[in-house]
Amino acid sequence: MSKLSLDRVLQSQGFGTRKYCRALIEDGDVVINGEVHDNYKTLVETDGLVLTVFDEEWTYREHVYIALYKPSNFECSRKPSHHPGVLTLLPEQFTWRDVQPVGRLDHDTTGLLLMSDDGPFIHAQSSPKRHIPKVYQATTQEHVTQTLVDQLLSGVQLHDEPAPLAAQSCVQRGDHQLEIVLEQGKYHQVKRMLAAAGNHCAALHRSQIGGLTLEALGLKEGEWCYLERAQLELLVPG
Ligand code: URA
After folding, report:
1. What is the pLDDT of residue 10?
2. Which of 15, 92, 141, 188 has the maximum number of C-beta atoms within 10 A of its C-beta?
3. Which residues does the UniProt record annotate as the domain Pseudouridine synthase RsuA/RluA-like (predicted)?
């Protein structure tokens, strides 16, 4: 159980600066259990708290864990330069509470992207020691050959890497389609591995991280959802 003043609650949930949150409260825009609360000093229990702000319901969350079906032409970087950032696909509150992508997908890669404002979670998920498999569907420019599959499975040498990198699994899904599972998360890894093996990645999609799949989440391109405990447990290496 923990109690916080109402202005702090609103600020922690990303409604804006403390000053702005106080103004929201004093204007009567914040409702809890059907009752307007216009004193920002009111202490409220955060466990199970549901706020209504401007007629929209918000469940209090100490941290948020989000899955986004990233569309193409969005950047994961904090300061996007050529395309809009992925945060523009989420409610503004998440930018205020400093939600960030967990790792990165290239601007032209689609698929499952995790996002959170929980620093230790982001750090743990991004750690190379974690070995969380990530499943990618790659469309190749040249035909997929058995030699290509074998090379990706046995390991290819990338510039700036001390040792060859191998796919955990690699299955041909069509003339120009591969399903690749990687445990590492190196910069442009799939594209660089395909290039090092003499092909070229024409399109890339991530369908799964650990045991969490886009299909099970039921997300369509551009959609997002909160991840609850059971779904987060699927991200822990087995
Ligand atoms: N590998 C890549 O090359 N790009 C991505 O976006 C993800 C993995």
Report:
1. 97
2. 15
3. 65-196
For residue 238, is pLDDT > 70? no
Which CATH number is correct for 65-128+212-233, 3.30.70.580, 3.10.450.710, 1.10.3290.10, 3.40.50.1820?
Answer: 3.30.70.580
CA 143 to CA 4: how far, in whole Å?
60
Q: Distance, CA 136 to ligand 1 centroid (Å)?
A: 8
pLDDT tens for each residue of 165-175: 999 999 999 99
Which whole number is the average pLDDT over 124-137? 89
Mutate to test the pocket of ligand 1, among 70, 114, 136 (most ligand atoms within 8 A of CB): 136
Backbone φ and ψ for 184, nearest 5 degrees, come out as: -90, 170
- Known catalytic residue: 106? yes
Distance (Å, rounded) from C-alpha 51 to C-alpha 11?
Answer: 13
190-216: pLDDT as tens digits:
999 999 999 999 999 999 999 999 999
Output the average pLDDT for the chain: 95
The candidate with the shortest Cα–Cα distance to 214, out of 137, 140, 107, 150, is 137
Residue bearing the CA closest to ligand 1, atom 4: 188
Using the atom order of ligand 1, give the atom closest to the CA of residue 134: 8
